[in-house]
Amino acid sequence: MDLGLNGRRAIITGGSRGIGAATAAALHAEGALVAIIGRDAAALAAVAEPIGAHVAVADLATANGVRTAVDSCIAALGGVDVLVNNAGASPNGTIDDITDEQWQHAFDLKVMGYMRCMRSVLPAMRAQRFGRIVNVGGTAGIRATPGYTLAALNAAIVHLTRSTAEHVGRDGISVVSLHPGPTLTDRLRTMLERGAANAGIEIDEFAANVVGKALPLGRVGSAEEVARMIVVLCSDVAAWVTGGGISIDGGAAIGVVGG
């Protein structure tokens, strides 16, 4: 099946590792022209070199960082057809654990960063009356747990996605959210450090035999699996999909939930 991505110009935030890096490679494999944004110049360069991606080093928690990075990517690609908002990581912790400073930084990067990146690409997308935006959140944003209170920001992304989709749909732009569950990336490994230490086993073993086996499908996911779903959502296959959310989580978000 032709996904209609050949020659499409795609910007991926948080593109230096994990889901972002896998998405850059997967979009490139479909013929897309790729630009990646992140804070780690060396890691970005390692991702970009084999796929010929443009690199923009920036802190997307700031308005100036978003503006300069997105402008650089649009100039390098000659426009933009696809935005994958993927930057942002926040620590585990209850409402008692997370400091005001942690709340503010996570909000600036995840919610404000996503909003500013969307706002930055909308003029170009409107002018051509076409665009695909995928906002990567997480199942923790649709299934609350006491130990990850900052997942409230993922819930905000769900609302931001819906409100923006309704606002720009008549301009030919679709906006969807994607909710990955436990995905074996460096970030998940960091989040599982304490549990693995308490269990007295290696982190990857803890992910496979404790976290993964608790899921309906019996395993954690991979960055490549999530990236393939993002590629589909960016493609012509998903041309009539907007506003909602897709869970890719091995069944982690148990219960009746809405995306």
Automatic annotation (TrEMBL):
Q: Which InterPro entries match?
A: NAD(P)-bd_dom_sf, SDR, SDR_fam
One Pfam family, short name please?
adh_short_C2
Q: Which SUPFAM superfamilies match?
A: NAD(P)-binding Rossmann-fold domains
The UniProt family comment states: Belongs to the short-chain dehydrogenases/reductases (SDR) family.
Q: What's the protein here called?
A: Unannotated protein
